[in-house]
Amino acid sequence: MNMNDTPALKEDAGLTIAGKTYRSRLLVGSGKYKDLNETRAATVASGADIITVAIRRVNIGQDPNAPSLLDAVPPSEFTILPNTAGCYNAADAVYTLQLARELLGGHKLVKLEVLGDEKTLFPNMPETLKAAETLVKDGFDVMVYCSDDPIQARMLEDIGVAAVMPLASLIGSGMGILNPWNLSLIIEQARVPVLVDAGVGTASDAAIAMELGCDGVLMNSAIAGARDPVRMARAMKLAVEAGREAFLSGRIPRKFTASPSSPMAGRVA
């Protein structure tokens, strides 16, 4: 091989969820933007294929007299991921996603989140497990916001969910990944995609999640709450891509001793 030739890198196969493959491993939310124009601009800049929609808070056709989010991010361009933000019990969550299925013409891919309280927005795992079981039996492909507990994640997998989405830290907190060890345990045992959901504050948080081996990252506040959401969306896109490349490359091991870049052994003089 010519020394100037660069070996061809194997392409990342993409993120596969419920049998469908997506180019981007970054998923974004649709809330908290100043208007629908900014929502679209940031979503496009993120490169995301999947955008989450809070069915209880966002109009996607429930009110024919109000602007619809689908005018800005149409299903012809993006995969709409209905979510149950604002639900605090299994029954409400299940009803919300059944409504979303009707509004979106039989759409099966959904994001389940059942919250424990209004202060922490931490997942209520008993209700989450109950709702997940009902939805899977009803034919939904369920992506689940959950605690970073490896046992709970395994229980969700056993139910048959399409992906587990442990929080990195509290929703909207921007605190980043507070417990990488639990996240690593979930990734190690997982038979379905693992995506970090909640707590990302900046691009380095997204890169760290991907370097740990996560299959993807979902965020909203970190982009929509930035001074320049469109620029931050682009930064998050690059961070997820860089973190994935680093993970696939295989980092050097951490050591307590130095290892010179130019070893003395075998030197010419």
Which characteristics define this entry?
269 residues; alpha/beta; five-stranded parallel beta sheet; three-stranded parallel beta sheet; 9 helices; 10 strands; 36% helix
Report helical residue fraction.
25-40%
Low-confidence sequence ranges: none
Structural class: alpha/beta
Shape: globular
Element pattern in H and E:
EEEHEHEHEHEHEHEHEHH
- What does the radius of gyration come to? 20 Å
If you had to describe this structure to a student in words, what would you say it looks like?
Helix 3 (90-103) runs parallel beside helix 4, helix 4 runs parallel beside helix 5 and helix 7 runs parallel beside helix 9. The chain has a five-stranded parallel β-sheet. It has nine helices and ten strands. The longest helix has 21 residues, at 229-249. The two termini are 28 Å apart. The mean pLDDT is 92. A hairpin with a 2-residue loop joins strand 1 (15-17) and strand 2 (20-22). It has 269 residues and is of the alpha/beta class.
Task: Summarize the structure in short.
The chain has helices at residues 36-46, 69-72, 90-103, 125-137, 150-159, 180-189, 203-212, 221-224, 229-249, and strands at residues 15-17, 20-22, 26-29, 50-54, 79-83, 109-112, 141-146, 163-166, 195-197, 216-219. The protein is of the alpha/beta class.
What does the secondary structure layout of this molecule look like, with pairings?
Layout: E1 15-17, E2 20-22, E3 26-29, H1 36-46, E4 50-54, H2 69-72, E5 79-83, H3 90-103, E6 109-112, H4 125-137, E7 141-146, H5 150-159, E8 163-166, H6 180-189, E9 195-197, H7 203-212, E10 216-219, H8 221-224, H9 229-249
Parallel strand pairs: 3-4, 3-10, 4-5, 6-7, 7-8, 9-10
Antiparallel strand pairs: 1-2
Helix pairs in contact: 1-9, 3-4, 4-5, 5-6, 7-9
